[in-house]
Specification:
The complex is a heterodimer of chains A (212) and B (300). Chain A is built from seven helices and ten strands. With 300 residues, chain B is mostly helical. Helix content of chain B is 76%, strand content 1%. Chain B is built from eleven helices and one strand, in the order αβαααααααααα. In chain B, helix 10 packs antiparallel against helix 11. The longest helix of chain B has 32 residues. Classes of the chains: A alpha+beta (212), B mainly alpha (300).
């Protein structure tokens, strides 16, 4: 079994329901996120549009975080999930430096690394990840990539040519896919970040996640 | 390139949540800086033994103690940088050998243990023969202990600026630069003019080579990858770290090179000592800039 995730960006409307469901399900502390929805505005007024991109751990087949972790706190499950053992983690932040997707953070309460686990605890009980359940437009498609009859496999088959991963040049072989994505949604360097000009508030850099 | 993409799409991030940016801060800079001095002194002591063993007299114990102190500073800051520092023992009881952090921690521990043994050998037995034999093996071990941090940086896949071949070279050069500088200061009048000039040459050449590598990255790195180009913006023009970067280059490399050359012309020990002090101080700045800037790049 190889579990994977696909987000259809044609469908995502940026409601952030997945983000909140993840927060609640996994008791993610304030100021940290296992799953984030990024908004990017494209074009010049009046020809503009807004794009939404949910970002989470990519559960890479060749995961840099697993390789750099000195104590195997980050490890593979048999179903392909890159899981984390918070009791084992020593908080060296090597995984934070290694993840090309910025998906790992230091939990300010436990002072250990944390990230999306595809809700491994729910999977173990044959339930879907919380973000999949919460999505009102079924933009999140989750399932077994090895099973040709699974929803995700069928989705990939029918959307061939439009399935992308983030930063393929890194060679991490992510098991997290997007359809309907483009350069500005998947490449962080293709859009500007203007300090003080943000939709709801400034991009503030909180002194959290580290003790110095 | 990035700026062309930006112009074409006119895309602006209008909502992204706050994430802390600098995870590896000045504690890690201290770690790399102290380790460079600690292992560098061992390299220089070995070179001294091969070049003129008679000048080792009175320098064996003092040099090793200084190296031992700096290696312990390195270990202390490595430990302090852990968010769960009391779990440090997990590295030894649950080691994951694909990680350069694990390999480095084991080797550094062995290295410091051997150094302690050598200090005991000298202080309790004054056994220079045993010391010199151990020095060979400790010098061999000092090579991977110096290099393993480059391995960590190479495994930090998200930070495109850190590439294994160049970081390895920079780690070794940082050790020879700071080691020769520290040896000049520790050796003082115990070193002959010829030996002091030799260590001055090591210092000057290390500075030159390191400076060439940094300038190569500065000029050509941006042509290879858009991430590197974006990171180097922090040190180019009016970038956020431009001043600190150039202070580092001048203090660690350019001024020591000039002072080493002048000290040879004028036969001045004071100039050589100043070059040594500047090199050691500047190395900290150089290491810090290179450590911090890749962490400023948005990954989302």
């Amino acid at each position: 079994m190889q579990l994977g995730f696909l987000v259809d960006l044609h469908l995502c409307m940026g409601c952030k329901g997945c983000e909140i469901a993840c927060k609640v399900e996994n008791e993610v502390p304030l100021s940290t996120w296992r799953l984030r929805v990024k908004y990017v505005d494209v074009g010049t007024f009046p020809e503009t549009k807004r794009t939404f991109t949910p970002l989470r751990c990519n559960h890479c087949e060749n995961a840099p975080c697993e390789r750099i972790c000195p104590v195997s706190a980050l490890h593979y499950l048999e179903n392909g999930i890159v899981n984390i053992d918070k009791e084992r983690c020593i908080g060296c932040a090597g995984c934070v430096m290694a993840c090309p997707y910025g998906a790992i953070y230091i939990d300010p309460q436990t002072q250990t690394a944390d990230k999306c686990t595809y809700c491994a605890h729910r999977i173990a009980s044959s339930m879907m990840p919380a973000c999949v359940v919460a999505c009102p437009v079924q933009a999140n498609i989750f399932g077994d990539l090895d099973d040709p009859t699974s929803n995700i496999s069928k989705y990939i088959q029918t959307h061939q040519g439009d399935v992308q991963v983030r930063k393929p040049e890194k060679g991490t072989n992510p098991h997290h896919y997007y359809t309907g994505g483009g350069n500005v949604t998947l490449n962080p360097l293709a859009s500007r970040r203007e300090e003080g000009h943000n939709l709801f508030n400034d991009i503030t850099k909180l002194p959290l996640g580290g003790h110095h | 390139m990035v700026h062309e993409t930006l112009a074409a799409t006119n895309a602006v991030v209008t909502l992204d949540v706050a994430l802390p940016d600098i995870f590896w801060g000045w504690y890690v800079t201290m770690n790399m800086w102290a380790k460079s001095i600690g292992t560098g002194l061992i390299f220089m002591l070995f070179l001294l033994m091969k070049k003129n063993a008679s000048e080792m007299e009175g320098l064996r114990t003092s040099t090793l103690i200084v190296s031992f102190v700096f290696m312990n500073i390195f270990l202390l800051f490595t430990w302090l940088d852990l968010h769960q520092m009391w779990r440090m023992w997990h590295i030894f009881f649950y080691p994951h050998w694909t990680s350069a952090i694990t390999v480095g921690a084991w080797m550094a521990t062995l290295f410091v243990g051997l150094e302690f043994l050598m200090i005991v050998v000298m202080l309790l037995r004054n056994n220079t023969a045993a010391f010199d034999k151990l020095l060979f093996w400790v010098t061999l071990l000092a090579i991977p202990v110096t290099l393993y941090t480059a391995g960590i940086m190479a495994e930090a896949t998200a930070r495109e600026l850190w590439q294994m071949p160049t970081e390895s070279a920079q780690m070794i050069l940082a050790a020879t630069l700071s080691g020769s500088a520290a040896m000049i200061l520790i050796g003082g009048s115990k070193l002959s003019d010829e030996t002091r000039t030799f260590f001055g040459s090591v210092l000057g050449l290390s500075a030159l080579m390191a400076f060439i590598i940094y300038m190569s990255e500065y000029i050509f790195g941006a042509m290879k990858a858009e991430e590197v180009a974006a990171i180097l913006e922090y040190v180019k023009g009016h970038g956020e770290y431009a001043t600190m970067f150039w202070i580092g280059q001048w203090v660690a490399y350019i001024l020591p090179m000039l002072l080493v050359a002048l000290s040879r012309v004028k036969n001045s020990t004071a100039m050589l000592n100043l070059a040594a002090i500047l090199a050691i101080a500047g190395l900290w700045v150089v290491k810090h800039v290179w450590l911090v800037i890749p962490q400023l790049l948005p990954l989302s």
